[in-house]
Protein 1
Amino acid sequence: MKNRICLPVAGVLLTVLASAGCSGAESSGCPVPRAAEVAEVAAGAATVAKVTFRKVAALADGTTETEGWLVEGTGTVKGPALGRPTAVWPTIDAGTPKEGERLVLFLSPHEGRTTMDGAAASGYDVVREGGVLVESGGGLARLCREGRSQPVPPEILG
């Protein structure tokens, strides 16, 4: 009788541990960035920018008001340098970075005049879901609402 109880309990426990990420596998809610996907997202972006996250800010463009990000450009992988100040309209899947975190953003210019906290700003949209990477553990991880993916080598940017 005891064996019938222990085996199902052990199976359930292993399933719970694996789904909690204890197995070392990636979370399905925040997949590891893959080289082909990063190349595809970069191809659709006007700018692939390296930035430092400064704060969450109130963004507006005449029709939409929402929270976005104030970032400071530190370099580009592709495309023109970012203007100052730079306002970013993130995608809904991205979590909120911590102040001072270094990000790689896949961006296109935001249509319409952008204001940030009431002042004019250069506005950019993250081109699509999965377009926010964060420096993590010597590599780059995807930033998601659920947290972060496992980091991959920074060479993934090409």
Protein 2
Amino acid sequence: MLHDSQYQGTSSQDRYPSINQLIESHELADKQIKANIMKIVRNSKSPTIEELDKRLEEAQLKLIQAANQHQNCNDLTQQVMELREQKEKVQEIESENQVKLHNIDQVSDFVDEHQHGLQEFDPQLVRRLIEKITIFQRYMEFTFKDGEVIKVMM
């Protein structure tokens, strides 16, 4: 584990290169990532949850009517099941998009608070911002929770 005492005589830029690189390049990357996510959300060909709820309700009413009239309900039952599965998938996608946007907002808030770079190591902050750190023979790769990846040569 590295401590600040090991970095005496070095600038904060040298001590925390990946986080400070993130701060420096963040504004453009943040806008681009948000734009990409919003483009995916807007251009989605899948129906909205509201549309699926309406279609599901209609199919369920038809199923009840068919059952009351002692008709074959296999096709309607299959349609209801498919609509439920489709709704579940759309909910998962929307949830994932919300998590991505939340992560971007967290990183954005951090960058706004630390516009002049990080002055001292904060382990809690690292846990909040960094998804994973991969160490290679010649460099380290920091993957931030907003999707940004920064390589730092060793």
